[in-house]
Specification:
Rossmann fold; 11 strands; alpha/beta; two-stranded antiparallel sheet; Arc Repressor Mutant, subunit A; nine-stranded mixed β-sheet
């Protein structure tokens, strides 16, 4: 029995997670002896072999926690996943990592801020990790993907490494797989449940050397991720928001309590001159352009529909879209425009 098979037999057995897994390894001395002690039935054994075969077909790799590709940050967490799966550029997992999270219902300003911040981190040699949700997560991934080359971003998934969720991010998933990496601790083909997203948030916090929180409601997955970062001793930064917006409660409260450092922009982390140039992408946006950004999301919207929404002529819409596209805030997609 190979080491990988015995580890998966343990992890795919009912009631065995990282805690129980580590107890069994400690008791029996190896994954093979631990698996033999469970007297695993042939059905589970066949299921694991089918999963490994499917992984090979989909070019999904198993990474054990003693591998050079296993994220260094996760190894420091007690009861981390003994085995993860990865699809894409494995070298991405060897880079310095910053995690960026926030609400799914982010403002256009909040998303462009996080996208530019992610892009700056990539330009400075980091990979940006997030959870591939719509809103802030997507902005962080897209901002990272604006960088040159590969190995820019990591999507930590709640389902299997092949399971795309949400469906609106199918295109983003394949872009990340092509130029970064998607990872998961769940079996291939696994459809996530609610508790899996909380577990995913553990790893988003633990994988990074710092976590940046954007807009976030008080009771949200992003705030849970921030609390995990505090628990793990990962430096936490929060982007302040207007106090009248419910999405400001999360970051503002963490700044007020002293649990998070104030994040005002790229200059908090990198060269001031470069930060000023990048921040202009965010700040120099007209009221008309902001209206367009507010109307855009991840589903392409045509120029004519945009004109109707923001009450502008097609000519005005075209002019503003050109400016926004040059700033990296929107892009063409399937005959329409989406927000980056």
């Amino acid at each position: 029995m190979s080491d990988l098979i015995s580890k998966l037999l343990l992890l795919r057995s009912p009631g065995i997670g990282p805690v129980k897994y580590n107890e069994l390894i400690k008791k029996f001395g190896s994954s093979e002896l631990a698996a033999e002690s469970l007297m695993i039935n042939s059905a589970l054994h066949d299921s694991v072999l089918r999963e490994i075969d499917l992984a090979q077909q989909l070019n999904i790799h198993y990474i054990c926690d003693d591998s050079e590709f296993y994220p260094a940050g996760l190894t420091k967490i007690k009861n981390h996943p003994p085995v993860i799966t990865a699809r894409g550029n494995l070298e991405t997992l060897k880079k310095r990592i910053v995690s960026m999270v926030g609400t799914r219902h982010a403002t256009a300003f909040g998303m462009s801020f996080m996208a530019n911040l992610a892009n700056a981190f990539v330009d400075n040699g980091f990979a940006v990790a997030s959870g591939m949700a719509i809103g802030t997560d997507s902005s962080a991934h897209y901002g990272a993907l604006r960088g040159v080359g590969n190995h820019q971003t990591i999507a930590v998934l709640a389902g299997g490494a092949d399971y795309i969720w949400p469906l609106e991010n199918e295109k983003l998933y394949y872009e990340i797989m092509e130029r970064g990496v998607v990872i998961s601790e769940m079996p291939i083909g696994y459809v996530p449940k609610g508790t899996n997203f909380i577990q995913r948030n553990h790893w988003i916090a633990g994988i990074a050397e710092k976590l940046i929180l954007g807009e976030a409601d008080a009771k949200s997955g992003s705030m849970a991720t921030a609390r995990f970062a505090i628990e793990y001793g990962v430096p936490l930064y929060a982007v302040p928001s207007h106090p009248s917006d419910s999405r400001s409660v999360g970051p503002n409260s963490l700044i007020a309590s002293g649990d998070a450092k104030l994040c005002m922009g790229i200059s908090d982390f990198f060269d001031a001159e470069k930060a000023v140039n990048s921040d202009k992408k965010i700040c120099d946006t007209s009221e008309s352009e902001n209206a367009i950004l507010d109307a855009l999301g991840l589903i392409p919207v045509s120029e004519s529909v945009l004109a109707n929404i923001v009450k502008k002529t097609i000519a005005e819409i075209k002019r503003d879209l050109v400016v926004l596209e040059l700033r990296g805030l929107v892009r063409k997609d399937n005959g329409g425009y989406v927000r980056v």
